[in-house]
Design goal:
Helix content: under 10%
Mean pLDDT: 92
Strand order of the largest sheet: 1-2-5-4-3-6
Strand content: over 45%
Distance between the termini: 44 Å
Shape: elongated
Structural class: mainly beta
Length: 175
Amino acid sequence: MQKEECFYLGKIVSKYSFKGEVLVKLDTDDPQQYQNMESVFVSIGDSLVPFFMEKCVLHKSNLLRIRFEDVRNEAEAERLIGSKLYLPLSFLPKLSGKKFYYHEVIGFSVIDNQHGDIGIITGVNDNVSQALFEIKKDQNQILIPINDAIIQKVDRKLQTIFITAPEGLIDLYLS
């Protein structure tokens, strides 16, 4: 399995018990849907290695407590700390309407109700307080906040997102 075929689920942040259990900080809005999993891919070096679970339960709000089948003690668990966990994209539930996964809209066109076609989404910056579409238009990069008030429609068939950008925002990038 390649990383491009998977989505990032979370990161192993600490050991939990002397029996080799670990705590995983999840990167999701719905942690409950990931408890009771049977397996996951762990990033080790440049590879994704399948790990099977004996136990996988929610721990506090957004942590999973996992006991992997082949991890039996603290030393083995310690080696996994900092490793990232992945699941196949096929595990993601289908979204509809204006909801979407960030990876899903890369390559979509963006149409603004005032400026028309403003470019193609080349990425999503979610490392800031407000996630942003990174849109390429000719030699310009346009940043548009990802926000329900701005996004009017997501057309998956046409691979197009229709927006109403705040007054003057697009002009800042195209002037």
